[in-house]
């Protein structure tokens, strides 16, 4: 196929997949026929054979799974077998929701006569296949029009009514378009209105409708359901947006009182999706100006060309004056001007054809071709001035397809023949009463259709809690569901209407455990065809460093009042998520250098895939105002979503926002009873089920204090036996996740404060009251709550529930209702608001649950409240400190035993939950463990790649596994692995000193440097000082000249200082500018040569917390 303007050739190979029916032959061409046989489906014709339906179904299912890159998968084979079996038994099959969406978009993509197909992937689908009456059809059409109109910012959408099984039971919209103007035959034979609708107008009048006799009277809808006689429904005026036509410079057109409707919703086409026919599928895009111009000037339509020419003062006596051309041109100019002035979407024929050519080139590249009907694609005005005029195009039909069908009155056999012959005024009046759609009906209709998926990724459970709150507010107008990110099928992503993501960030900008590469990162490399974890990790780093996501959707809304005819029509391609609206909220701590980094990465990715942001990303800092930030963001994103889906008039925002502060615990519906079986569960197996993780029990082999007795602090080496468990297979650099046990003394103190506590040996179970509906009535019954197993209170508070984290505002609000005296109840309610009072109280006291109950001693708390409302006890992570090659069957951790006083040193003594647990376990106790992969912190794949390891304090932990691995892999040749370790005093806390010396003798470590910050008689020296002052040239040579790897492990403050120091080293030794240094370090991260393993603030001292909190407050104030 040649383009005669550019002299460029295209090759079409897609046509070999076309449907075989084509009536053209060597003797004649049917290219100009309006309804060619290959695009016509008449229900009076014989039904397709079962074999042909199977062939179409098989091809469609193959297309669907290929589009998701899951062809030849087990799901593909299973679904195809299911479809073919259904056709064999019933003659047809039912499309899934996702198949329906894919089929609708592909049918538009395949439509050879549509010039606006570049928008095919932005089509919104309303699935109304379950309607049973014309009333339900009418409600759905009202929803369609309201969504599509969108106050003039027209959106493409399609509504599916039930498919055709038999012509006698079919659903049809008898109107050719949802919005059409009537036509009245006068006594003298002349016509007033749009002659294209004369037949339908007269039919409506026979059924009792009385028009006003004007040129632009809206026709009622004539709807048919389940093969019954059609019924009339008049569209509410507020659902039909019309534009009065006027010329930008002359007043002659305004005086003619012409107007046109904004939404071209075609309703008489048939969609064939894999052999399933849908005869009632109203569909709309937006107008091209010449379409309206033709409707007004064609002699078979309004025939306004002569009156317009005369009003313009043109010479209509001879055709050579080109009066017709002038009139048509000025009319088209006026149409564009009118729509743009009213902020209603429209496009001119030049933009439309240019966008089609980009779509055409893209389709040839992606699919090997693009079907097109040249006769229809070339606009009726200035055809040769548009690029499509010069392009050779093949015209063929692909399935899924958009087809023509005869008007239903041509073949329909009326059930009520009397009704056809007389004007049934009473019948129409009854229908007229049901015309106005109430707000309640609209709200219900929208809520039943718009699904909202809330994905969460969490380490501590807070993202999940916030997701439930978000679900609560969104259920006021949407059908919202909450799904863990690792439980979500990523193939459903492109079919979502509204997607909300709530995620925390782990460590150095890493995704939480259930937001790992298996889910969002998998999408990163699926999109870029990167088939392995390492590649996805690199791509993630690139996105992580891209901190300013595109604001395409936001900019589009911001300038919607200045819509340009070229807005968004010239996109070369449509992204995977072009039809998905989304918003992201990130939880994090400014104690980390990459605050909310994973949330930003997800937000950027969704934007890069052309998803539309309904709200900018929200951030919640655990150091300051996280609750308040989340509530404000949730209110804003809910309002924005309601505006996007045209629900703002049907939703009470005050009621919805109130749900953010409400508590949903009714103590009368929960109770704790003695279990029938007095046997406690295996806590390792129970934790595995609760957290959906494969856990393996480990036992203590040895525990050794690595610090001297003089240090006053404790760092321990924990050696665990892993019993050759495959669950605990790991590589050096990975993390060990451990589910700890709460302090027994703290558990005992808590149980003593519970009003209805049982003794230590009694196994109890939490029960919830449910209601069952039966044919004889409803009755309530008690059933076991699935959150926790039957166990003793001691086990529940020791193993399963978090009792050390400060209670949430919601829990404090519940405490205020537990028979508390008035003074303490008021104080608890104030804290329960989650505002600044709560933040200050939490920061000052950092209280555990027992301390809260001590502060408010009149609180009479029930066991059921705590068992249901307390968050689950989460795993703690430690860098693995051993190599499986050196210690097979074992797994080691280096643990700093955490103890600190709250309130700046004046408060009660707190113990780290997991470090204290590991410091007290015996060799008889099973430790629930699992491995968390850290692919960005592994040793280089090339064994001889030079490395420098920077790890002060317990930051040395993963590097012990590194040098052990190198010892086991020792070969001849020069290898550089330099270790830089820092501690306070060489005599007190120089961890693994002897092992490092041994590793140096064996050649595993080439260089060892130390920094001591508390060495007597010497100035303080930190690892960054050694880098800058002692080994600057060595570091530069290693990472720049020799392309070595740079590893940092430790707390955030140290990591930030080392990062700044490394930039100084590159500036000084490499002569780089600050900008070049930033680019170089970013490149190192992208190339997987800069590795950080950051574990944040471990000892939550008053000074550190105060500094970070003040920074958080400053940031919060700056954002207001």
UniProtKB/TrEMBL annotation:
It is an enzyme of class 1 (oxidoreductase). Heme b binds at residue 114. It catalyses: 2 L-arginine + 3 NADPH + 4 O2 + H(+) = 2 L-citrulline + 2 nitric oxide + 3 NADP(+) + 4 H2O. GO terms for molecular function: calmodulin binding; flavin adenine dinucleotide binding; FMN binding; heme binding; metal ion binding; NADP binding; nitric-oxide synthase activity. Binds 1 FAD. InterPro entries: CysJ-like_FAD-binding, FAD-bd_FR_type, Flavdoxin-like, Flavodoxin/NO_synth, Flavoprot_Pyr_Nucl_cyt_Rdtase, Flavoprotein-like_sf, FNR_nucleotide-bd, NADPH_Cyt_P450_Rdtase_alpha. One of its GO terms (biological process) is regulation of blood circulation. The keyword Heme applies. The keyword Membrane does not apply. PANTHER family: NITRIC OXIDE SYNTHASE, NITRIC OXIDE SYNTHASE OXYGENASE. This is Nitric oxide synthase. The lineage of its organism: Eukaryota, Metazoa, Chordata, Tunicata, Ascidiacea.
């Amino acid at each position: 196929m040649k383009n005669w303007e550019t002299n460029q050739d295209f090759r079409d190979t897609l046509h070999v997949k076309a449907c075989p029916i084509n009536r053209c032959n060597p003797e004649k061409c049917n290219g100009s026929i309006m309804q060619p046989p290959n695009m016509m489906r008449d229900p009076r014709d014989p039904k397709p054979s079962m074999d042909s339906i199977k062939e179409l179904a098989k091809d469609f299912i193959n297309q669907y799974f290929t589009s998701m890159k899951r062809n030849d998968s087990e799901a593909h084979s299973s679904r195809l077998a299911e479809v073919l079996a259904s056709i064999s038994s019933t003659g047809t099959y039912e499309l899934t929701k996702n198949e329906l969406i894919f089929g609708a978009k592909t049918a538009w993509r395949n439509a050879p006569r549509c010039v606006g197909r570049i928008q095919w992937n932005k089509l919104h689908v309303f699935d109304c296949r379950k309607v049973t009456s014309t009333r339900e059809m009418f409600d759905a059409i009202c929803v369609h029009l309201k969504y599509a109109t969108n106050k003039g910012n027209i959106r493409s959408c399609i509504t599916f009514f039930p498919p055709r099984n038999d012509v006698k039971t079919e659903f049809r919209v008898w109107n050719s378009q949802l919005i059409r103007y009537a036509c009245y035959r006068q006594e003298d034979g002349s016509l007033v209105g749009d002659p294209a609708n004369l037949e339908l107008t007269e039919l409506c009048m026979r059924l009792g409708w009385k028009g006003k006799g004007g040129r632009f009277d809206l026709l009622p809808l004539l709807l048919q359901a389940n093969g019954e006689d059609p019924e009339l429904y008049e569209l509410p005026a507020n659902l039909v947006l019309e534009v009065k036509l006027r010329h930008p410079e002359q007043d002659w057109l305004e005086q003619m009182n012409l107007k046109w409707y904004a939404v071209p919703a075609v309703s008489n086409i048939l969609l064939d999706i894999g052999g399933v026919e849908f005869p009632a599928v109203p569909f709309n895009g937006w107008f091209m100006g010449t379409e309206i111009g033709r409707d007004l000037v064609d002699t078979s339509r309004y025939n306004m060309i002569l009156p317009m020419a005369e009003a313009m003062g043109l010479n209509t006596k001879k055709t050579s004056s080109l009066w017709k051309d002038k009139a048509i041109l000025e009319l088209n100019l006026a149409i564009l001007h009118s729509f743009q002035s009213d902020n209603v979407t429209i496009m001119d024929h030049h933009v439309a054809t240019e966008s089609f050519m980009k779509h055409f080139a893209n389709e040839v590249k992606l699919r090997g071709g693009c079907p097109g009907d040249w006769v229809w694609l070339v606009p009726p005005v200035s055809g040769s001035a548009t690029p499509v005029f010069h392009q050779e195009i093949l015209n063929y039909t692909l399935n899924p397809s958009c087809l023509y069908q005869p008007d239903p009155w041509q073949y329909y056999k009326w059930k009520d023949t009397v009704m056809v012959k007389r004007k049934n005024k009473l019948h129409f009046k009854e229908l007229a009463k049901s015309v106005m759609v109430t707000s309640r009906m609209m709200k219900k209709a929208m809520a039943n259709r718009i699904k909202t998926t809330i994905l969460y990724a969490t380490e501590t459970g807070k993202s999940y809690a916030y997701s439930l709150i978000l679900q609560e507010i969104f259920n006021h107008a949407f059908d919202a569901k909450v799904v863990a990110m690792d439980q979500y099928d990523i193939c459903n992503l492109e079919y979502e209407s509204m997607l909300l993501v709530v995620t925390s960030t782990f460590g150095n900008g890493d995704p939480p455990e259930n937001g790992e590469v298996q889910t969002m990162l998998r999408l990163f490399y699926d999109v870029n065809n990167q088939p392995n974890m390492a590649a996805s990790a690199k791509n993630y780093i690139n996105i992580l460093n891209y901190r300013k996501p595109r604001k395409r959707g936001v900019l589009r809304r911001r300038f919607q009042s200045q819509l340009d005819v070229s807005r968004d029509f010239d996109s070369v391609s449509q992204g995977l998520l072009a039809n998905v609206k989304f918003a992201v909220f990130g939880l994090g701590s400014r104690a980390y250098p990459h605050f909310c980094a994973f949330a930003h990465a997800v937000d950027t990715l969704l934007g890069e895939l052309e998803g539309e942001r309904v709200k900018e990303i929200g951030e919640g800092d655990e150091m300051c105002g996280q609750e308040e930030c989340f509530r404000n963001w949730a209110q804003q994103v809910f309002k924005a979503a309601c505006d996007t889906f045209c629900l703002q008039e049907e939703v009470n925002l005050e009621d919805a926002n109130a749900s953010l502060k409400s508590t949903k615990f009714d103590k009368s519906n929960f109770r704790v009873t003695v279990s029938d079986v007095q046997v406690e569960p295996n806590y390792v197996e129970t934790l595995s089920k609760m957290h959906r993780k494969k856990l393996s029990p480990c036992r203590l082999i040895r525990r050794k204090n690595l610090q001297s007795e003089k240090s006053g602090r404790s760092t321990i080496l924990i050696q665990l036996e892993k019993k050759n468990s495959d669950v605990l297979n790991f590589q050096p650099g990975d993390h060990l996740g451990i589910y700890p046990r709460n302090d027994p003394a703290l558990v005992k103190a808590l149980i003593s404060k519970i009003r209805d506590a049982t003794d230590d040996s009694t196994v109890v179970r939490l029960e919830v009251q449910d209601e069952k509906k039966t044919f004889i009535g409803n009755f309530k019954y008690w059933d076991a709550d699935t959150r926790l197993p039957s166990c003793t209170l001691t086990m529940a508070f020791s193993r399963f529930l978090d009792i050390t984290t400060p209670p949430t505002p919601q829990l404090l609000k519940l405490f205020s209702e537990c028979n508390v005296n008035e003074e303490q109840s008021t104080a608890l309610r104030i804290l329960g608001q989650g505002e600044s009072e709560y933040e200050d109280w939490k920061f000052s006291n950092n209280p555990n649950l027992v301390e809260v109950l001590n502060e408010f001693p009149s609180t009479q708390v029930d066991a059921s409240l705590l068992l249901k409302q307390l968050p689950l006890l989460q795993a703690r992570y430690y860098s693995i400190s051993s190599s499986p090659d050196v210690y097979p069957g074992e797994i080691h951790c280096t643990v700093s035993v955490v103890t600190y006083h709250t309130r700046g040193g004046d408060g009660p003594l707190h113990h780290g939950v997991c470090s204290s647990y590991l410091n007290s376990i015996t060799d008889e106790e099973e430790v629930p463990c699992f491995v968390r992969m850290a692919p960005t912190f592994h040793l280089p794949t090339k064994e001889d790649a030079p490395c420098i390891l920077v790890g002060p304090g317990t930051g040395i932990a993963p590097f012990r596994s590194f040098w052990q691995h190198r010892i086991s892999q020792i070969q001849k040749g020069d290898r550089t692995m330099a270790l830089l370790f820092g501690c306070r005093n060489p005599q007190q806390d120089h961890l693994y000193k002897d092992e490092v010396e041994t590793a140096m003798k064996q050649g595993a470590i080439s260089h060892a440097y130390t920094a001591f910050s508390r060495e007597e008689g010497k100035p303080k020296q930190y690892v960054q000082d050694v880098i800058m002052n002692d080994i600057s040239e060595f570091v530069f040579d290693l990472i720049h000249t020799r392309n070595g790897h740079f590893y940092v492990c430790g707390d955030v403050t140290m990591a930030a200082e080392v990062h700044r120091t490394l930039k100084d080293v590159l500036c000084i030794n490499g002569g780089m500018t600050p900008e070049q240094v930033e680019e170089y370090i970013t490149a190192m991260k992208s190339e997987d040569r800069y590795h950080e393993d950051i574990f944040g603030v471990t000892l939550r001292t008053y000074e550190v917390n105060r500094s970070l909190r003040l920074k958080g407050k400053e940031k919060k104030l700056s954002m207001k």
